[in-house]
Design brief:
The chain is an alpha+beta fold. 53% of the residues lie in helices and 17% in strands. The chain has 3 domains: 2-140, 2-Layer Sandwich (Beta-Lactamase); 177-278, no CATH class; 280-447, Histidine kinase-like ATPase, C-terminal domain (Heat Shock Protein 90, 2-Layer Sandwich), CATH 3.30.565.10. The chain is built from 12 helices and 12 strands. The structure holds adenosine-5'-triphosphate (ATP) and magnesium ion.
Length: 448
């Protein structure tokens, strides 16, 4: 069947056309059959009532071209008009019905209709030759009309499907062109505001998300390589210099100390990256245990005593409530460590840091410093991996820019929230809060 379309049986278009074709065929056939039936019925009853009227007003002289009429008594014709020439009329007299349609197959005549009326002992037999041939004409017409209509329907449906599938085909071609290194441009939106348009909008949005994701991954890869390359270059350089000639033990010791420091850097980066990638929303629940937030916090503060002393920073504990939380204790520790580390790193000498840990309808951890602050333009970016504000890089403050992304990721894994409020040269506040889950609140009720 050539409809100006290529038919592929597995294609959506062919399947829709087949379905449509079958449904259209069934509907057309049903329509034709029922129409035929009712037309037949109405023509027959029309003829029947006409013949009945003639029979009831019996008159043998009735001279209508096709009407034969006879009065029969005891099986014998008493009177008849000139048209009447039914030879086997006796056969019909014995039938139970009084109205028949008699097909004339042999001669080329059309069907006859016959009506028998009883008048006392007499029977009046009226028949009509060449009855209306509308039904046969109609049946003949249907025989060629249904296939033609079906073809026209399928042709129109095929064109319509082509039109509907056009944006979907564009989508399909666009997806074929997508590789991890090459993203097609956006697909143009169809004019009509319909489901296809929604699909194209979602597709474009998905492409953008994947593109952003891949770009971020690329940046992350190059950042990781860059961060690892620096200590590795230092190590290689140091080894090359030392190996050029024999040296004093002191020089070897100094070189080894440099190498040790750099390898510790590499170790730290790898550990931090592992902390970032090890857990996901799917597996984090399995690592949950009961963590005493106040004890983890106190232990962390203890570890920073030396650094606090070096910069003569006073650490105030505003509130410290005993709080137990169902969580991953390592990640909770990483939140405290990184936020306190940053507060000390980015706070001027002789200043203050204030910490609070408390609970109302949520669990709160707040750390306020009097440090260098963060400009608004950086605020949304500082939680990205390897992002460091320029001043932090220039001043050669130690760090890779991973701390806050670990904090953000750990909070996200615990369905918590992080808010950062900062003013340049005044200080920064980090507010962390966690929901009290059903399990935790039950635990707390039991405890108090
Ligand atoms: P790392 O934590 O990996 O040792 P880092 O401290 O530089 O390095 P993040 O903790 O991720 O990295 O912080 C990102 C950047 O945000 C920092 O480089 C710094 O510029 C800025 N920042 C973070 N905390 C503070 C703070 N308390 N005050 C001012 N700036 C901050
Ligand atoms: Mg940090």
């Amino acid at each position: 069947m050539d409809l100006g379309i290529k038919l592929q049986f597995s294609s959506l278009k062919t399947r829709v056309l087949l379905w449509f074709g079958t449904v259209a065929f069934v509907v057309l056939s049903l329509f034709a059959l029922s129409f035929n039936y009712f037309l037949n019925k109405s023509i027959n009853s029309n003829i029947k009532s006409k013949l009945q009227i003639i029979a009831e007003r019996y008159n043998e002289n009735i001279q209508v071209q096709n009407i034969g009429i006879a009065l029969i008594n005891d099986g014998k014709i008493q009177k008849k008009n000139s048209v009447f020439n039914l030879k086997n009329y006796k056969y019909y007299l014995h039938q139970k019905q009084n109205f028949f349609i008699i097909p004339h197959k042999k001669d080329d005549d059309y069907i006859d209709a016959l009506y028998i009326a009883q008048q006392g002992k007499n029977k009046i037999l009226v028949y009509r030759k060449n009855i209306d041939n509308k039904i046969e004409n109609f049946q003949d017409t249907l025989l060629w009309l249904i296939p033609i209509l079906l073809l026209v329907f399928i042709f129109l449906a095929s064109k319509l499907i082509d039109k509907i599938l056009l944006p979907i085909n564009k989508l399909r071609n666009a997806t074929k062109n997508i590789t991890i290194t090459k993203f097609t441009q956006e697909i143009n939106l169809p004019k009509e505001d319909d489901e296809i348009r929604d699909l194209v909008v979602s597709f474009n949005a998905m492409i953008k998300r994947i593109k952003d994701g891949v770009e971020r991954l690329d940046r992350f890869n190059s950042d990781v390589s860059h961060e690892l390359k620096t200590p590795l270059t230092v190590i290689q350089g140091e080894i090359e210099i030392v190996l050029r000639k024999l040296r004093e033990p002191k020089e070897y010791e100094k070189s080894l100390q440099t190498i040790q420091k750099q390898s510790k850097q590499i170790d730290l980066i790898v550990k931090q990256l592992l902390l970032l990638t090890k857990y996901s929303k799917e597996n984090i629940q399995d690592t949950f245990e009961e963590c005493s937030l106040d004890s983890i916090l106190m232990n962390t503060i203890d570890k920073f005593q030396l650094k606090l002393k070096e910069k003569n920073i006073k650490l105030h504990i505003d509130k410290l409530e005993p709080i137990n939380m169902n969580a991953n204790c390592t990640l909770i520790d990483s939140i405290f460590v990184n936020l306190i580390d940053n507060a000390i790193k980015y706070t001027f000498q002789n200043k203050n840091i204030t910490i609070s840990l408390y609970q109302d309808d949520k669990i709160h951890f707040v750390i306020v410093d009097e440090g260098i602050g963060i400009k608004n333009e950086h605020l949304s970016k500082i939680t990205q991996r390897f992002y460091r504000v320029d001043s932090a890089r220039n001043k050669k403050t130690e760090g890779f820019g991973l701390g806050l992304s670990i904090v953000q990721n750990s909070i996200w894994l615990h369905d918590g929230n992080l808010e950062i409020i900062s003013e340049k040269d005044i200080g920064t506040t980090f507010k962390v809060d966690f929901l009290i889950s059903f399990k935790q609140s039950r635990y707390l009720r039991l405890k108090f």
